[in-house]
C-alpha cells in the first residue's frame, strides 16, 4: 500500500514537471505533444505569421534566446548539459517562432531531448525544424510529430 502511494506521487510529480516544460509558438498550437494534428485556419495562420515577422516580436525572441544562453553558461558544455527543461523548451520555441512564421508548434524538453509537435505551412519550414532546434545550446536530440498542413481556406 505504501509503495503504491509513493509510485502514484512520483507519477504525479513527473506529470506536473513535464506539463511545465511545454512552450508554444502560437496560441493555436497544440496543447500537448500527444493527440491529433490539425491544419490551422487561414486567419490563424495569417495572425501567427504577422506576429512572428514583426520586428518588435523578432527582437523580443532574439533577446530571450541571448538572455537564456547567458544564464545557462552559453557554450560551456558542463552547464549547458544541465539546463532546466523549461528554459530549453522556451528557447527552442523562441527560435522556431522567429524563424518559422505561420507555424503552430508546441515544444517540450526533458534532459536535452526536445519534442516538437504541430503544423507548419510548407515542407521547407518542416525541413528546418531540427536544424534550428539543434542550434540551441543543450539540445541533444529532436523528435518531431509535425505535419505540413497549409492553412484551411
Number of strands: 4
Question: Secondary-structure element sequence?
Answer: HEHHHHEEHE
Structural class: alpha+beta
Give helix % range.
40-55%
User: Termini distance?
Assistant: 55 Å
Write the layout of secondary structure elements.
Layout (H helix, E strand, L loop, with lengths): L1 H18 L2 E3 L17 H12 L1 H18 L4 H4 L4 H15 L4 E7 L2 E8 L2 H12 L6 E8 L5
Helix pairs in contact: 3-5, 5-6
Give a verbal description of the structure.
The protein is of the alpha+beta class. About 50% of the residues lie in helices and about 15% in strands. The protein has a four-stranded mixed sheet with strand order 1-2-3-4, covered by helices on one side. A hairpin with a 2-residue loop joins strand 2 and strand 3 (about 115-120). Helix 3 runs antiparallel to helix 5 (about 85-100) and helix 5 runs antiparallel to helix 6. The longest helix has 18 residues, at about 1-20.
Amino acid at each position: 500500500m505504501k509503495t503504491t502511494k509513493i509510485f502514484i506521487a512520483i507519477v504525479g510529480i513527473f506529470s506536473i514537471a513535464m506539463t511545465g516544460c511545454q512552450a508554444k509558438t502560437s496560441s493555436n498550437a497544440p496543447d500537448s505533444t500527444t493527440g491529433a494534428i490539425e491544419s490551422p485556419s487561414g486567419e490563424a495562420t495569417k495572425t501567427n505569421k504577422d506576429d512572428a515577422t514583426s520586428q518588435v516580436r523578432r527582437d523580443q525572441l532574439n533577446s530571450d534566446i541571448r538572455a537564456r544562453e547567458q544564464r545557462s553558461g552559453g557554450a560551456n558544455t558542463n552547464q549547458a548539459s544541465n539546463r532546466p527543461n523549461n528554459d530549453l523548451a522556451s528557447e527552442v520555441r523562441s527560435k522556431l517562432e522567429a524563424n518559422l512564421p505561420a507555424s503552430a508548434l508546441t515544444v517540450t524538453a526533458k534532459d536535452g531531448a526536445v519534442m516538437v509537435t504541430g503544423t507548419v505551412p510548407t515542407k521547407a519550414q518542416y525541413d528546418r525544424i531540427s536544424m534550428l532546434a539543434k542550434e540551441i545550446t543543450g539540445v541533444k536530440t529532436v523528435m518531431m510529430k509535425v505535419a505540413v498542413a497549409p492553412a484551411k481556406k
